[in-house]
Amino acid sequence: MQAYGDLVQRYQEVALRTALVVGADAQEAEDAAQEAFVKAYRALGRFRHGAPFRPWLLRIVANEARNRRRSAGRRAGLAVRVAEDRPSIDAAPSPEAAVLARETRSSLLEAMGRLGGDDRLVLAYRYFFELSEAEMADALGVPRGTVKSRLSRAMSRLRTSFGEAVQ
Amino acid sequence: MTERSDRNRTVDERLRAMSDDELGAELSALGRTLAWPPTPAMASMVTARLERRRSAWRRFGQSLFGRPARRALVLALIALLVVAGIAGALGLGLPGIRILFGPSASPSLSVQSPSPSGSGPVGSPSASPLGGAALGLGRRVTLEEAQSAVDFAILQPRVPGLAAPDEIWLEGAGHDGVVSLVWLAHGGQAAPGTNVRMLLTQFRGEVDPGLFTKVLEPGTILEAVQVGGDRGFWITGTLHQVVVRIPNGDVRGDTVRLAGNVLLWTQGPLTLRLETTDGRDQAVEIGNSVR
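Above: the input entities. Below: the structure tokens describing the complete assembly.
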């Protein structure tokens, strides 16, 4: 069990964040992540030949989180906020630039919050968690050639959701 | 307030006008500044959940198999369900289940992903597996091609009397490459359903007993052995899958190809798996000679 405990420790953060991206609240996300680790452990024997663990786990996490969100009957929000600015000594931006950067991040995050959980997941895999295209294909359960079109579609929807009123 | 709304509109318009690359760069920057909720340590909670499930199953098993008469009835029912399931799969051609007929007398059930082309030696009694081609080992290459494709030195057994491998197969490349050496039976004892006598698979990785023993099925016999001065395992029974730790700390699943005995060990940065129709002592002797 120690070896699996090491794996849990290694991936618990990305698992929890994936569940949050799908739209689970903090409590559901933690429950979904833990349940996904349990299911992954029990299914280790069916682990596909040559497959890396992380995308396989994330696929289980996303399903668990989706199920919890649907059972709760909520729309897919995003329970994350932008961190306060941390001033850096070597590259302190001008006050105007700092305000613009903060507002850009806020607008982006609000637009992400308005997206459906699946579009948000595609963007988060690529830009927040920096999964490779192959890992994204595994994590999303789609052929590798489909990843680019999913990403492009999610980008288009993100673009149209800028400035929309919060539902 | 109005000034802020105007500014927000400007920001939204600027974002909307960005190319995918520019928007991607902004998303990456956002990702680095998000304040995610803190992640609790989950290992002990996951272990507790697993323990609870295990106990629940144990209690369920005890209640099912509590008395001899009830046990006999339950076993008969399970047997009936298994037979019905196989018959159903045969009759209905369920997706994902294919019946592979090899040279051996009995058909074997194998779960596979559906083939997009629908071709291959599936469901045809006349189709005879040919060397490594029937084992899904990647693509057939020469030893030189394999060696130039992977970033480790390919190891080979050096036992007197053992010829060079008949076939070399390669899956992936570089750090993630998997090289398989195949020895055909040449009329000798072949693994069931194949004409292969021995298969030596090697890739970067480490045998982690904690993970690897997890996937062993009931009836599998595991024996610790020394191979080339390192710890190894001699496995007999119904082993289908090994799980090993790869260099980046991740794990990967690896399917055992021959329904025979398996010698599994780590040598330097490599995990080696010898699947053979030979017995333990001969397998260990072959393993010891690998360099």
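Note for the figure: Chain A touches chain B through 66 residues (CB under 8 Å).
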